[in-house]
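Discussion board: Methods & Data

I've been asked by a reviewer to show the raw model output for two of the constructs in my manuscript, not just the figures. I'm not sure how much to include, so I'm pasting the format here to get opinions. Each protein appears as its amino acid sequence followed by a line of discrete structure tokens. Is this the kind of thing reviewers expect to see in a supplement, or should I convert it first? Here is construct A:
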Amino acid sequence: MDKRVSERTTVNELGGLERFELLVNAIKDYAIYLLDREGHVATWNAGAERFKGYAAGEIIGQHFSRFYTEEDRASGLPQRALDTAAAKGTFEAEGWRVRKDGTRFWTSVVIDPVIDGDGRLIGFAKVTRDITDRRQAERALLESEQRFRLLVQGVKDYAIYMLDPEGHVTNWNPGAQAIKGYTADEIVGQHFSNFYTEEDRQGSEGGPSGRRERRRTDRGARRRHRAECRRWPRLLDPCDGRFLGIR
């Protein structure tokens, strides 16, 4: 392939098959290769070598099941993946795969059947992506959320709860139940205006001075709830900054 490319001056001078081979071999972030009908490796690109550690000469002709864990091989997962791809037109999954040095990495895998002009199955196209970093980030976020939930549920002296962007209660801790009297089943999904007085919900009369006077004399729930509202942080989507709610 390198010799054929060196004899051309531009990509446009290459044949269609040569351009495709050049494209596949230039991809470093995906392992892209062909399997025969039985699952033996027939081609191998630079991304496959990078992820899995095998040079093309080491792996072509070997069965692709060697990339799976012992547990997956024992359960017959490699053959089920091929059978599913042949029967349904594709197979998609995430799971552990094994490098040449024995280390594991988490992958996103797609296997598609390769059909010839007569409609016969002649092999499979396999695309694998290493998503170990993404999985670790997702697990770290999940563990952080779990720790936060445990912390919140352990707090009894403070009402800690979240509101959606429209002000409806989305979760409820034991402190909120103790202070406000509602169980989670009673209040989740309800609007937080339930915690305010009828005057506050309808709008106070007497103008700003009258409202200030009532705030000075009101030592109860309204002051506490207003203070809570000022303290509640806004929740923003970390990807695009969208407003998600209040906690």
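Construct B, same format:
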Amino acid sequence: MKDREHFVLIRGLLREARHWGNFTADLQQHFPNAIISTPDIPGNGTRYHETSPKTIAGITEALRQQIDSSQPLRLISLSMGGMIAIDWMTRYPDEVEAAVLINTSARLLSPFYHRLRWTAYPHVLRMIFHSAAQKETDILRLTSNLHRHDNKLLKFWQQWQQQCPVSKASARNQVLAAVKFSISTKPQQPILIVTSQADRLVDCRCSLRLAQVWDTDYIQHESAGHDLPLDEPIWLINVIKQWVASNFV
């Protein structure tokens, strides 16, 4: 009997499983027999009481402890989550069958002013002095193009932040881990790289560069923001579904 598909969804900085929004349920509808796991990074979500590791490798180890990898995994990852996915498939190739990397980047392949667009610097600096609730407003407006003024969604995000606040130590460690992450070797598994041309946080050239260096499958959305699963979940799922069908018959 063929193993059930097992998708593992990995978010990025300061985000938790609930930030996948409708994407998780929509993905399940398109892959009704699949297992879908949404583990939280230590320091975020259900694990907010823990302190995040200072390295991507440390975060990977923490996520692996939450996942049954008795059958090959297919990782769907966003932003810093893409760095975790790359590390996971590189160091544990027998556990990962394939990966989708969305709006991610890596040191050495892309300059710092592409990994964090220079136009985003003022917004990020202002966040340091904002309240926790205001930070959620800042994050939504910076990462989403379609929902940036969605007050109903913002209230949910602010509520989640109150329920599971990310400590300053965890936030610092996650930023440090992302900044330090670099790629040593190319993973051998099939990879789909997806990017948003209108991403206002990370320059889309980071994803394009990664796809060129690794010679992987690549697709670009023209208008979605950094949080592509939030802005265009059905488009993204259809892309993933077509890619899976062409690579895993």
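Answer (T.O., handling editor elsewhere):
This is acceptable in a supplement if you add a one-line summary per construct. For B, something like: Residues 140 and 148 are 5 Å apart (CA to CA).
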